[in-house]
Write a structure and sequence with these properties.
By secondary structure, this protein is an alpha/beta fold. It folds into two domains: 205 residues, 3-Layer(bba) Sandwich (FAD/NAD(P)-binding domain); 114 residues, FAD/NAD(P)-binding domain, CATH 3.50.50. It is built from eight helices and 17 strands. Strands 1, 2, 3, 4, 5, 6 and 17 form a seven-stranded mixed beta sheet that branches. It is elongated, with a radius of gyration of 21 Å.
């Protein structure tokens, strides 16, 4: 099946939706292709997560976002972005993976596979990559990491009640997971190669996790790392020597990165040290003419530079550039 559009956006996160809105408002016929559901990354956030920011900083398309409290939660964000997609009648193809982007500026051919295994081809003039960074977890690279008990995403604590659980990491995801697991009755151990809980942890979470550690309720191993994962235990290297811990589940919450393999396959040039794609700062067009980058992938491995709050404005820059180019 082949369809034609002026522009195709890869990714239906907040930034991808913002790009679709801005393009549509400029009369650019646009389709958005998403390998998961709409705002797939937010869907995979912890069930009870609260955003660090205020509602107005998550807004796109000039649609107000409401929240019961000062800071919105995951459920409110999912509802909001669904409402935005409906309001603008965005053409979002969910559960469809982009396999290949061939061709050249004004004559791209994007090949995809949908959830039923059907292959589709889109003939488009411009492509926008807004693929985020939450789909590729950083790896521990230790024996046993492939075991089913090792998880790189935390959703909710109930299944781990009355189990020995190790949480690796010391940023927001790790701190929230450790606390929720402990509150639900898991026996939690926190492991981090650094010296302390990250200063970037949300201000209402940081003292809580630090107090649990101080009181011995959540044992913590700092300046330590997992060197082997076994079915019933994990082996740590600590400043005091090797430690063997009884263990049922491991949450390796040590961060995520952009899908660099996909970017490379698409012909996007990356800076060797930072893996930052080379883009025109005024238009966010990459060195592969006709392909634009939006959101956190613009920052390469520096994923703490771009969030929803500032990535949502990339849509306006890109849409202006694309509309101008198509009008020539």
């Amino acid at each position: 099946m082949t369809e034609s559009f002026d522009a195709l956006v890869v990714g239906a996160g907040p930034t991808g939706l913002a790009c679709g809105i801005e393009l549509q408002q400029r009369g650019v016929k646009t389709v958005i292709v998403e390998k998961g559901c709409v705002v797939n990354s937010i869907y995979h956030y912890p069930t009870n997560m609260t955003f660090f920011t205020t509602p107005e900083l998550l807004e796109i398309g000039n649609i107000p976002m409401t929240s019961l409290n000062d800071k919105p939660n995951r459920h409110e964000a999912l509802k909001y972005y669904r409402r935005v997609a409906d309001h603008y009648h965005l053409n979002v193809r969910q559960y469809e993976r982009v396999d290949r982007i061939a061709g050249q500026d004004n004559a791209f051919e994007v090949s995809t596979t949908d959830r039923l295994g059907c292959n589709r081809i889109y003939q488009v003039r411009k492509v926008v990559l807004a693929t985020g960074y939450y789909d590729v977890p950083n790896r521990l690279n230790v024996p046993g990491e492939e075991l089913d008990k090792v998880l790189h995403y935390y959703k909710e604590p109930h299944p781990y009640y009355n189990h020995d659980v190790a949480v690796i990491g010391a940023k927001n995801s790790a701190a929230i997971a450790a606390l929720e697991l402990w509150w639900t009755g898991a026996r939690v151990t926190l492991i981090h190669r650094g010296s302390d809980i990250s200063s970037r942890v949300k201000y209402w979470i940081k003292p809580n996790i630090e107090n649990r550690i101080k009181n011995g309720e959540i044992p913590a191993y700092f300046h330590s790392q997992v060197v082997e994962i076994r079915q019933d235990s994990i082996r740590l290297a600590t400043p005091e020597g090797e430690v063997l811990l009884k263990n049922d589940f491991v949450f390796a919450l040590i961060g995520y990165q952009p899908d660099l393999e996909f970017l490379n396959a698409t012909g996007i040039t990356l800076e060797p040290e930072t893996q930052r794609p080379r883009t025109n700062p005024d238009t966010l067009e990459s060195e592969r003419t006709g392909i634009f980058l939006a959101g956190v992938i613009v920052a390469g491995m520096h994923t703490n530079e771009i969030f929803i709050e500032n990535g949502r404005f990339h849509g306006q820059l890109i849409a202006q550039a694309i509309a101008s180019q198509l009008a020539r």
